[in-house]
Specification:
83 residues; globular; 3 strands; alpha+beta; three-stranded antiparallel β-sheet; 28% strand
């Protein structure tokens, strides 16, 4: 199974959200359906970045690394460098 670390963006909120999942398209749909607490206030989330991992542990570790940066500038750099 492949796990993905992902970044989604809401234009309505002008915010990014970082997470990891084993099914990226289902998880994106859940964010837009209001299932996740943080993302439930908007329904315009779009996928702007994803990175695959072979294990849940590796994906979770990368998600934590990204979140620890606490930097919008870093997120935007990461997104633009993946292009």
């Amino acid at each position: 199974m492949i796990y993905s670390v992902y970044i989604i963006f809401s234009a309505k909120l002008d915010k990014y959200y970082v997470g990891y999942t084993e099914d990226l398209m289902v998880r994106l749909a859940q964010h837009n359906e209001g299932i996740s607490d943080f993302t439930s206030v908007a329904q315009d989330w779009i996928l702007v970045y994803s990175q695959p991992f072979e294990t849940r542990e590796a994906a979770r570790k990368r998600e934590i690394e990204i979140k620890k940066k606490k930097s919008r500038k870093y997120l935007e750099w990461l997104i633009s460098s993946a292009g």
